[in-house]
Inverse folding.
């Protein structure tokens, strides 16, 4: 694997999911593969799971790991031909090439600004690293996608294996802040590649990018969408149409035990209890959010393994 910017970078998804589940049984089996190899992780934004699960994955493979919180480095410039007489001190051209001397794989987390849709969709940071790095680049959540999360989600659903073609519903839920579309986008892309009956539900005004949703059926009635669901995946996102705006904080959209019923409950975490979902769901046996977070390690590990095999 030369890069993991998007779930479409996975050549054989069913095989990759199977391999990740195998890695989970013997996480240290390929410890020699990463010997004398280094992963550099760059964080433009906060993280708990992505940071630690990716580090654990790399170490399981015998790699060294370096972490850089970008706010403690030089301010980066991404514009071509910029006259750098203002706040930026280093251009991505040098930064990415220099990092490529220090590391064998570079992983980047850079969230959207949620102000300018065109600017966010240009994925300036992620594609800047892709363009100028001379080593493989991993997306640890960009403006528009979170492919490591989506792979962990697919692994988690595969592990449930209680039904041949489960009904999976992605439900929007309220949140006080404007959140990105990345997790929802990648989950939608992933579910379209899996053997599931997939539906989306959200209030009017929260339509995701139609290029992601394609012909997935969308319900504006949450109760109707959740009927007979086997898996309920919950996530908040801000409006795409009125870009980055919070249009609705109606707590009638919060997920309750009654709404989830017998379905398995998924969320990428972190989650605001009793805003997005009530305690009774998260604390129930139907919640698989902890297993889902555990699978972040094996999603990252299978991606790193495939990269190391081609170095
Ligand atoms: N789900 C997820 O990406 O978690 P973090 O933001 O803590 O990394």
């Amino acid at each position: 694997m030369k890069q993991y910017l998007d779930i479409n970078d996975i050549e054989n998804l069913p095989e990759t999911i199977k391999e990740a589940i195998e890695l989970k049984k013997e996480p240290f089996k390929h410890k020699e593969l990463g010997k004398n190899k280094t992963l550099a992780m760059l964080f433009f934004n906060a993280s708990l799971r992505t940071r630690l699960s990716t580090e654990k994955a790399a170490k399981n493979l015998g790699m060294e790991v370096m972490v850089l919180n970008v706010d403690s480095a030089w301010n980066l410039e991404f514009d071509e031909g910029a006259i750098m007489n203002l706040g930026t001190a280093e251009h991505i051209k040098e930064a990415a090439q220099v990092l490529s001397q220090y590391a064998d794989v570079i992983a980047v987390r850079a969230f959207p600004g949620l102000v300018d849709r065109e600017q966010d969709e240009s994925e300036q940071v992620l594609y800047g690293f892709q363009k100028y790095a001379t080593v493989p680049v991993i997306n640890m959540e960009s403006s528009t996608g979170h492919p490591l999360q989506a792979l962990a989600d697919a692994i988690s659903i595969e592990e449930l294996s209680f039904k041949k073609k489960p009904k999976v519903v992605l439900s929007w839920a309220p949140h006080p802040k404007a959140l990105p579309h990345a997790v929802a986008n990648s989950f939608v892309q992933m579910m379209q590649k899996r053997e599931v009956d997939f539906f989306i539900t959200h209030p009017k005004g929260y339509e995701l990018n139609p290029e992601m949703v394609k012909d997935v059926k969308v319900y504006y009635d949450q109760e109707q969408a959740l009927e007979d669901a086997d898996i309920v995946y919950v996530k908040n996102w801000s409006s795409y149409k009125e870009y980055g705006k919070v249009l609705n904080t109606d707590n009638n959209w919060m997920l309750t035990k009654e709404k989830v019923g017998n379905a398995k409950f998924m969320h990428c975490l972190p989650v605001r209890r009793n805003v997005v979902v009530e305690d009774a769901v998260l604390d129930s046996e139907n919640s698989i959010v902890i297993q889902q977070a555990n699978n972040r390690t094996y999603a990252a590990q299978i991606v790193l393994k495939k990269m190391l095999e081609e170095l």
About this structure: The longest strand covers residues 38-43. Residues 47-50, 141, 149, 268-270 surround phosphoric acid mono(formamide)ester (CB under 6 Å). Residues 266 and 289 are 5 Å apart (CA to CA). The chain has a mean pLDDT of 97.
